[in-house]
Amino acid sequence: MKIVVFAHMMEVGGSQLNTIELSAGLRDIHGHDVVLFAAPGPMVKVAEDKGLRFIPAPHPKSMPSLPRIRALRDVVRSERPELVHVWEWWQSFDALSALHLMHRVPIIVTYMLSDILIRSLPRTPVTTFGTPEFVDRAKAVGRKRAELLVPPVDVRANAPNVVNPRPFREKYKIEPNDVLLVTVSRLSVNLKGESLRRTIDAVRVLGRELPLRLVIVGNGNARSELERLAAETNAELRRPAVILTGELLEPRPAYAAADIVVGMGGSALRGMAFGKPTIIVGEQGFSSPLTPETAESFYYHGIYGIGDGSPSNARLIGDIRVLAESGDKLSALGAFSRQFVVDRFAIDTVCARFEKLCRAVVAERWRPFVSAADGLRSVALHQLGKFTPDRIRRLVKSRELRMNTISLPSSTSYPQEAQLGKGGP
Question: Which helix (H) or strand (E) holds 86?
Answer without folding.
Answer: strand 83-87
